[in-house]
Specification:
Blueprint lengths: L16 E6 L10 H9 L3 E3 L15 H17 L4 E7 L1 H12 L5 E5 L12 H15 L7 E7 L2 E7 L1 H8 L8 H7 L8 E6 L8 H5 L9 E5 L6 H4 L1 H8 L4
Parallel strand pairs: 1-2, 1-3, 3-4, 4-7, 7-8
Antiparallel strand pairs: 5-6
Helix pairs in contact: 4-5
Length: 251
């Protein structure tokens, strides 16, 4: 599944690279606290905003507006002295990092930790399918901004989210760029031009499609797909050495 990392070439980039760290669905910035601390100690600039799919905010904005928050975080990092920006995301944040990267080829790099547009496929999740189907007629009836309860999936378990149909479908609708990783293999991943580090845990069921998905990314000599000893939740901490080694390759 993985390719070996090359050795570090230079640490000179550390002072000029800023990283936007994005947590997973229903997660919080604290999910990436250990990774953020390690990167800060290595001299990188870090911003870890609470994204619109957090436990507190889940789907309080549509996906495009969420991506605008990444723009703000990147601007803040540049104001602090970052010359180049790397976008890093975990799980749902990883899927968004990939989609953001497809729109922003000027990025210095993308780091996707166990990227997952939950679920990998919709066929086994009838509750989620029903919610998607119920949201679509609400949009057509002029209720795009009427918040209601929808079923969603986190790590294979059904949860309830209170959101507007517009916001919910921006993540799960048929036109969403991140509806599933399988869909992203044709809509997002082939558009990536930046260097990409994809990290998969060896005990993470969400990463069963990762090898095939990574193969759809246009070749960049700095692209890496690395396996770590971890389940889904443990991937960010397990990935710290791989992330630090890979960042040293970005001259």
């Amino acid at each position: 599944m993985c390719a070996a990392l090359l050795g570090a070439t230079s640490a000179d980039a550390a002072g000029t690279i800023g990283l936007v760290l994005m947590h997973g669905k229903t997660g919080m910035p604290s999910q990436l606290a250990k990774l953020g601390a390690a990167l800060t100690a290595s001299g990188y600039l870090v911003d870890a905003p609470e994204m619109c799919w957090s436990k507190n905010r889940i789907f309080d904005k549509p996906l495009d507006d969420c991506m605008a928050e990444i723009d703000k975080a990147a601007a803040d990092l540049k104001s602090r002295g970052a010359g180049r920006i790397v976008v890093l995301g975990m799980s749902q944040g990883g899927a968004v990092a990939l989609a953001y990267g497809a729109r922003h080829p000027e990025l210095a790099g993308i780091i996707a930790l166990a990227p997952a547009a939950d679920p990998t496929g919709l066929s086994n999740y009838a509750d989620l399918q029903r919610s998607i189907k119920s949201a679509q007629p609400m949009m057509e009836a002029g209720q795009a901004e009427t918040a209601t309860d929808f079923n969603d999936i986190v790590n294979g378990k059904t949860i309830t989210v209170h959101a507007t149909p517009q916001n919910f479908l921006s993540f799960h609708g048929p036109d969403s760029p991140i509806v599933t990783i399988k869909a992203m293999m044709t809509t997002v991943l082939p558009k990536l031009a930046e260097p990409l580090l994809w990290v998969s845990g060896d005990r993470d069921a969400s990463q069963g499609i990762a090898g095939k998905a990574f193969a759809t990314v246009p070749h960049n000599p700095l692209d890496r797909h690395v396996a770590v000893e971890a389940d889904h939740v443990g991937t960010p901490d397990a990935a710290i050495p791989a992330v630090q080694d890979w960042l040293k390759l970005l001259k």
